Each structure stands twice: as C-alpha cells, then as structure tokens.
Amino acid sequence: MSLSEFELIRRFFANSGLRRTDVSLGVGDDCAVLNMPTGKELVVSIDTLVEGVHFFKDSDPEALGHKSLAVNLSDLAAMGAEPAWVTMALTLPSVDEGWLEAFCRGFAQLAAAHNVQLIGGDTTRGALNISIQAHGFVDPGAALRRDGARSGDLVYVTGSLGDAGLALQGAGRMNVPPAIQLRLDRPIPRIAAGQALVGLANSAIDISDGLLSDLGHICDASGVGATLYVEDLPCSEAVRDYIVLNNDWALPLSAGDDYELCITVPAEKQAEVEQIAMDFECGLTKIGRIEAQSGIRCLAADHQELQQISSGYEHFSS
Ligand code: ADP
Ligand code: MG
After folding, report:
1. pLDDT at position 180, please?
2. Ligand 1 pocket check for 100: Cβ under 6 Å
3. Which of 44, 50, 104 is nearest to 75 (CA)?
4. pTM of this prediction?
5. Exposed e or buried b for every residue in 220-257, given b needs 16+ CB within 10 A?
6. Ligand 1 centre and the CA of 76: distance in Å?
C-alpha cells in the first residue's frame, strides 16, 4: 500500500463529512463515544456489500459509496428510525487514492443529506468488501416491525418496483436507460416515509430481496398471509413494457435491490396514511391486503391467480 493504514484513515475517514453534537469522540480512538438523546431507543443494523455478489467488479466507486450507505439507511427507514451514526469496516485489495476519493464522495454526499456522521470503523486488506453499521433513534416502542401485520391490513409500497431488477438483467447485454440504471446504482433510502408512518403502519420492511420474499417475512413474522393485485403494482414504463412483452411479473414481484418500503396499514388508518403520503416524493401505492390464510396469492386483472413466480434472492440457496 502506498499510504499506510493510519495515513489512509486520517486522510479519508477521520474528518469526512459533517459533525454531530451528540458525538463526543469520533474517528481516531479505540472507540467512539456517543450521547444518546434522552427518552429514545437505539436502532442498529449492519449490511455488507461483497464484490461479485452485490456489485460487479470495477463498479463506479462513487456509486458504491452511495449504495453501501443507502442499503443501511434503508433498514433504518423500514424501522421508522431517524438516522444518526454509522461505522464502516472496509476491506480493500490495494490503496487506490482515486477510488477512495470517489467512494468517500458518494458516501459523504448521502450521509450529509441525512445528517449522518461516520464515527469509526476498521480498514483491512483483502477482497473488496464494504460493511456498514447504521445507528438511529426511535421513540420507545415506536419502531415499525415485521411482526405487527394483522388480517385486514392494507398492503402498500413506496416508489416503484422492478427497475433495479431490470437494470441488473440488462447489465452487459443491452443499453439500460440511465434513469433505470440509477435505481440499481443509487437507491434512495425512504427515510422520510418511514418516519412519517410511525404510529400509522402496523408493520414495515424494506424490499431488498424482492416484494414476495420480503412481504413473506412480514407474513411469517406476523402469522398471516396476503393477496396482491399485480395490476396495482407501481412500475415504471420500462418495467411495464417488459411485463407486457414477456407476460412475466417476476420483475416487480421477485427482483431485489429496489429498496422501497412495504408496509401494512389497518383499514381505519387508510385515509390518514394516504393523506400524509401526498407529501412523499416517492409516492405510496396500495397493492393488496393481509389475510389470515398463510401464503401470498397474486391475482391478475381477471382475478385469476398467477402461478409459478420465481422467488427473491437468497444467498445460501443452491
Ligand atoms: P484499533 O486498532 O484500536 O481497532 P484502528 O487502527 O483499526 O483502531 O482504527 C483507528 C481509528 O480509525 C479508530 O477510531 C477507527 O474507528 C477508525 N477507522 C478505521 N478504519 C475506518 C474506516 N474505514 N472508517 C471510519 N473509521 C475508521
Ligand atoms: Mg484499539
């Protein structure tokens, strides 16, 4: 390595981005020292991006910096939490200063947008691997969880589904429209939507592995099932074209990496939720209903059930 490990940390991570007043001690000591706001619960999550698994070799480092933080902030969004601090364990094959600069730029831009401070981490040499732990706050007992869905709840998703999957499918084979490619490379964590839904949604999850898979987690945790109306799924024009051309709903139902939120809402809160969702930049669309019967049924326009939809991504499936 041209820079020593310590020079590298000082140069790229010690003073990157904003400073929060609740950080008594940030990067540079054995531990960070943090001030919890009184009367809040701490919400913690970690996610790792591995080269060759979560992103292609030679991916744009600025986009990677953004995405590695975005997927973690998305988990906080799904809990309805307010983001605060992150730590980062970074494994690099070599010290490439241009790469690091771009990576930190992408990371710092998104961190600043959400008032997030990098407070520590670890830097090692090896195959490229980015592991980020995010910390946020919620009011006691207010976190949106997977196990709160009830029969009769309405199912909603933010934004649109299938764009990231479409970009992934097209990678190296066709010209992916830039707006679609952006959805894969720079997912937008739905932080404001998640926080606004606290006290309204019965359950929430972020869609990282595909709608059926992730809504399936809500259903399993809550002991319920669901019916979805595929014609109601919010999709971009490009995804709609794909669906019509291939007569295949797998993109919005099963493709991962969209990082939208899927939530369930008790029927008596429908009007209130749809009112506050008018302020969501990403929008919020009703796509189905929670039922007592387990499993997820997908109904077409003619109310016929779709058969044989492939499920979401799973790391250890053969
Ligand atoms: P230690 O040996 O005590 O674990 P390190 O030498 O690994 O400490 O790290 C020195 C300081 O730099 C620590 O405060 C650590 O949190 C921080 N740090 C190391 N790598 C990173 C990174 N990639 N991002 C942010 N902070 C980092
Ligand atoms: Mg130490």
Report:
1. 94
2. no
3. 44
4. 0.94
5. eebebbbbbbbeebbbbebbeebbeeeeebbbbbbbbb
6. 23
